[in-house]
UniProtKB/TrEMBL annotation:
Belongs to the UPP synthase family. This is Isoprenyl transferase. Mg(2+) binds at D32, E222. The active site is at D32, N80. Keywords: Magnesium, Metal-binding, Transferase.
Length: 259
């Protein structure tokens, strides 16, 4: 097995034991396969997104229970606007339904909502739902549930570089003083410090691509790909992915004692 969980039946995975000392602090997920899940059931694509939203509820609580500090979910990319209008409209309304029904559970579980992306380009109702959820959970100090909404990593890096260039232009920052930390601080993950970078990036549905997600931040992330489509992803699948993560030897370019 090479970073790829090919079990289709998540129930098979529930005998996993995780090392509680090595739970990844930041888990990021590319939630893929909603459309194919729906198609296999002769349902419209949006039925897959609706079921995918229910999966978000289950996985947010499961990750929080496991002790994850930040769960970042790729909910809508800057490229997803290319989809048919009906689907885009449905995806824009999902955060409204999600937060309408789920904020009390998030508060009960001490989960704080965060959002990264070009939120000001979202429809007004979506922006309001997001702002309200952030406000209603602001005192929670457990896991951060971080939605990437209208997010794209190249655009994020360009925005960050522009902000840095402006400081250079005004003389506030010398070019020689720019370090990797300067860019960390200019990116949309800056408020997640010290957990800016995912320890593990999971992608569901068998696709093995990064799709413009957290390109800078995943430099040393472990990548886990599973065949399971997002609507079928369960707490047991999450545990299996984290067990795969825990089996890796993270060296960050260096050597370990074993070598
Ligand atoms: C990718 O599957 C999924 C998306 C583009 C949308 C993801 C959104 C959710 C899971 C719901 C988000 C919930 C909240 C609360 C914001 P796809 O449509 O590309 O699937 P396919 O590759 O099988 O067609």
């Amino acid at each position: 097995m090479f970073g790829f969980l090919n079990k289709e039946d998540p129930a098979d995975n529930d005998n996993v034991t995780l090392d509680p000392q090595r739970i990844p602090a930041h888990v990021a997920i590319i939630m893929d396969g909603n459309g194919r899940w729906a198609k296999a059931r002769h349902l419209p694509r949006v039925a897959g997104h609706k079921e995918g939203m229910n999966t978000v509820k289950k996985i947010a609580i499961a990750a929080s229970d496991l002790g994850v500090k930040v769960l970042t979910l790729y909910a809508f990319s800057t490229e997803n606007w290319k989809r048919p209008n009906d689907e885009v409209n449905y995806l824009m309304q999902l955060p409204v339904s999600f937060f309408d029904t789920f904020v009390p559970d998030l508060v009960k579980n001490n989960v704080r909502v965060a959002v990264m992306g070009y939120v000001d380009k979202l429809p007004a109702a979506t922006q309001k739902a997001v702002r309200d959820a952030i406000e209603d959970t602001k005192d929670c100090d457990g896991m951060v549930l971080n939605f990437a909404l209208n997010y794209g990593s190249r655009a994020e890096i360009v925005s960050g570089v522009q902000a840095i260039a402006e400081k250079v232009a005004t003389g506030e920052l010398a070019p020689q003083a720019i370090t990797s930390a300067t860019l960390d601080q200019a990116l949309m993950t800056a408020p997640l410090a010290p957990y800016n970078d995912p320890d593990v990036l999971i992608r569901t549905s068998g696709e093995e691509r990064i799709s413009n997600f957290l390109l800078w931040q995943i430099a040393y992330s472990e990548l886990v790909f599973t065949d399971v489509k997002w609507p079928d992803f369960t707490a047991a699948t999450l545990k299996a992915c984290l067990a795969d993560y825990q089996s890796r030897d993270r060296r960050f370019g260096g050597l370990t004692d074993k070598k």
